[in-house]
C-alpha cells in the first residue's frame, strides 16, 4: 500500500512540474518545468504587462532553475530562479527571451532583413561569433520588444541613454515597424512608410549592454 501511494505521489509531482500556464492578458502558449508558484507568476505577469500578442508564438517550454544567466533556444526559455525572485525587475528579461522565441519561431528571412536594416548591428544573431552583445541585431530586437510593448517606469530595460539597446528606435516607431511586418492591418501602412524612408533615416545609435540586463548565452 505504501509503495502504491509513493508511486502515485511521484506521478502527481511529475505532472505538476510540467504545468500548463494559465490564460493571461498578454496571451502566450507555454508550459512550466520547475519553479515555485511565485516564480511562475512572474512569467505570467510579464506577458500580461506587455501589449504584444504573444499568442502568435508557438508553444514554449519555460524552464526555471539555477541557470545563472537566462537564455533561449527555439521552443525553450531558461529563466534563472533567483532573477524571478526579484519580482517585477525580472519581467523585462522574460519579455526579452520571449522576443527571441518570436525571432526563432515566427519571423522569416525577409522580415529579419528589414529589421536588420532598421536596427543596425554587425550581424543578426551570432552567425559571426565573438562580437559585443549589442552588435547583434537579434539582441537589439529582443530589447526593443521588451521595452516598446511595455514602456513602463518599472521596466528594467527603460532606456537611460542613447546607447542602450532599447533606445535603438523610438518605441512607437518600432511597434509600427514590427506590427506591419507581422501583417497587422492597422499599422501596416505606417510600417511600410518607415521601410520606404529607412535609407534616409538617422543611423541607429550604437547599442551597448546595460547593467540592468543580465548577459545571455546561446
Describe the structure in your own words.
There is one protein chain. By secondary structure, the chain is α/β, with parallel strands linked by helices. It has two domains: 1-106, no CATH class; 108-212, no CATH class. Helix content is 43%, strand content 10%. It has eight helices and five strands; from the N terminus they run αββαβββαααααα. It has helices at 2-17, 37-49, 81-84, 91-105, 109-119, 137-148, 171-181, 185-196; strands at 18-20, 30-33, 60-65, 71-73, 76-80. A five-stranded mixed sheet has the order 1-2-3-5-4. β2 (30-33), α2 (37-49) and β3 form a beta-alpha-beta unit. α2 crosses α4 (91-105), α4 (91-105) packs across α6 (137-148) and α6 (137-148) crosses α7. The longest helix has 16 residues, at 2-17. It starts with a helix and ends in a 22-residue tail after the last helix. The model is unreliable at 1-26 and 185-218 (pLDDT under 50).
Amino acid at each position: 500500500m505504501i509503495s502504491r501511494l509513493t508511486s502515485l505521489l511521484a506521478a502527481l509531482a511529475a505532472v505538476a512540474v510540467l504545468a500548463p500556464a494559465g490564460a493571461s492578458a498578454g496571451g502566450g502558449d507555454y508550459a512550466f518545468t520547475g519553479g515555485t508558484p511565485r516564480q511562475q507568476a512572474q512569467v505570467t505577469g510579464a506577458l500580461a504587462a506587455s501589449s504584444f500578442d504573444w499568442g502568435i508564438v508557438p508553444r514554449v517550454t519555460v524552464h526555471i532553475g539555477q541557470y545563472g544567466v537566462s537564455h533561449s533556444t527555439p521552443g525553450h526559455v531558461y529563466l534563472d530562479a533567483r532573477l524571478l525572485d526579484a519580482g517585477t525587475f525580472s519581467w523585462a528579461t522574460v519579455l526579452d527571451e520571449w522576443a527571441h522565441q518570436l525571432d526563432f519561431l515566427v519571423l522569416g528571412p525577409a522580415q529579419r532583413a528589414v529589421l536588420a536594416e532598421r536596427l543596425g548591428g554587425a550581424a543578426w544573431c551570432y552567425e559571426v561569433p565573438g562580437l559585443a552583445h549589442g552588435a547583434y541585431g537579434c539582441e537589439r530586437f529582443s530589447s526593443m520588444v521588451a521595452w516598446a510593448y511595455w514602456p513602463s517606469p518599472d521596466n528594467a530595460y527603460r532606456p537611460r541613454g542613447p546607447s542602450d539597446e532599447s533606445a535603438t528606435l523610438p518605441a512607437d516607431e518600432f511597434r509600427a515597424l514590427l506590427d506591419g511586418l507581422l501583417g497587422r492591418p492597422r499599422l501596416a501602412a505606417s510600417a511600410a512608410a518607415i521601410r520606404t524612408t529607412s535609407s534616409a533615416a538617422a543611423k541607429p545609435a550604437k547599442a551597448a549592454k546595460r547593467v540592468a540586463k543580465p548577459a545571455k548565452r546561446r
